[in-house]
Structure of Lipocalin-like domain-containing protein:
Amino acid sequence: MRNALLLAICCCGMATAADAPYAGKWKMNVARSDFGDTTMTYEQVPGDGLRFTADGLSYNFKTDGKDNMTPWGFTMAWKEGNNGSWETVERTNGKVTATSTVSISSDDKTLTIKTKRVKADGKTSDDAMVFQRVSGGPGLVGKWKTKNLKTSSPETLTLTPKGNNGVVILLGNEGASCDARFDGKDYPATGSMWPAGWTCLVTKSGARGIDLTWKKDGKDMYKSTLTASTDGKVLTEIGSAAGANEQFKVVYERH
């Protein structure tokens, strides 16, 4: 009798997990996603330095090749490159996770960031982000708005429900995961390429989705809602940085 009861409970949990519309592995469709509201700003600060601001968060740097800690937990080193460009190196937990070239068009209206990013499996992804000038200039100084994004390796997202109690979130390119319950509490985000101090908080959002909050050292960083389509083929994430009123939309397709 006891074994039969345990089996019934297990089967019930398995059915719930299988029936969760958002469950499964998803791959980002860059063309259908929209980051057009997001911006970044460069401004001069005393001492020949610059301040970078995005998502309501900032860090200062000089183009001297030295590492500068960012609010996201990784470091960025800047140095001047060729033909008026800049070279950057991103390090996470002391390891190089991305190298980029930042360049500005001859008419001073477009900024392009070309990045080679290291993935958790050791392979690399070639990304390119293009921004349109909103204000400021000449050069880096000013406000820039996202125009488009291209990548050779779109992000994958795997959501594995834990019965009715929670979900495991796995970001494929970063190899980062967060095993969370639907109880309004923070749970650690882990992974060799994930900076220390990040957590996730997850709650249910209707019958087809979840609300997700990413935090760094207890501070809200990003909030979004992920909702599966009625046919179960598309997962749409709509959200924004906690410190900026700039909405983004990421569209994932079942993978």
About this structure: Residues 51 and 60 are 4 Å apart (CA to CA). Residues 2-29+154-254 form a domain with the Lipocalin fold (CATH 2.40.128.20).
